[in-house]
Amino acid sequence: MPSDKMRRRLLGLRILFVVLLLAMIFNLAVIMLAHSNNFKKLADTTQFYENLVPAHRGAIMSSDTYDTAEILAQSATIYDAYIDRSKFAQELLDIYETEQEIYAAAISPDFLVKMKYKFKGEPLPAAIPFDLGVTVTKLIRSLAKNLEIEETVILEKLQLGETVNETLSNGETISTFFPYDIEFLTTEKVYNALNILQNKGLGGVLLKADVPKQTVDEINALLQRIGENYDNDGTAEGRRYTIGSVNFRETSTRYYPKSTLAAPVIGFLTAGDSFGVEKTYNDYLEGKDGLTITAKDANGNEMYYRNSERIPAVDGNDVYLTIDTTVQSIMEKQLKTMCDTYEVANYGSAIMMNVKTGAIIAMASYPSIDLNNPYKLATTDYLK
Considering the entire predicted model, what is its pTM? Predict the structure, then answer.
């Protein structure tokens, strides 16, 4: 039997174990209850990207004294174009392999059963030779034309080219990437490059910022017809494939249709400067930005539109002024004439008010600014 001394030691060890266990449980409880939000944010940062979806700022309108009010300031929807490089490579390789199987089926009956199953009992498509090089060339040229960027820019972003390593005299190695010549994109070159691109696991990359809605629609229509060829008479020939690796992220920009009209009244709002109605009524005009939450892959690349959640933005409110654009335009012209005629040294200003209500009908100053380019004077006459 254990001695009293041994029993006391065992009891002390048990008490110590219980104390340590309770301390560990207490620390875990503190972490879970007091710091859970911090750890959740850290985990979200590791697994997700958060991208703001800018709210559309409310419009600034002129007086509706006459039939309709005119827009003096408004927010326009524009888009940023992205391409998911790994997905692009996978989609094009899948199209190529499908076309190869279809073509093989036409010359080898052994493939007929497999292909009929793939097309779910529908008539087997006609065999048309598929050139991967030509298809990618047409796609890149169309994207470059619509986005108004150089073809080499797309080739470089997709890494369609060769990397040359050069060893300098000091032993340092410099790697230089040379994109393929768009005129000589063969099926072999493109196939090898796409396989390398797919194996790298690269995520999305920006192709072009500030893309207008019309261009987005044109590109989306193009992406529905990959692989389609046309005869000289315009008859469609071949199969249509759709690729989803080119995506557009919505954003917003401020636009002033009247440019200089009532510019000092309307004002503008930037990170560094703000004045006029844009500043004074900012709380009414600005909305609440939305959020796009996008998952990251194992390499930390954003997986555009694969795993994402969108919280829509809430647009701002419109503000209506008492300014009458017709009177405002006449006042600005007359003010300029007066300043030029009498060689006003600094600047001139004028205002017209409704004496009964106090409403400002027109308010002008000369020289003015172009609100679409606010850091440049709207007239060079003032500098002469």
Answer: 0.64
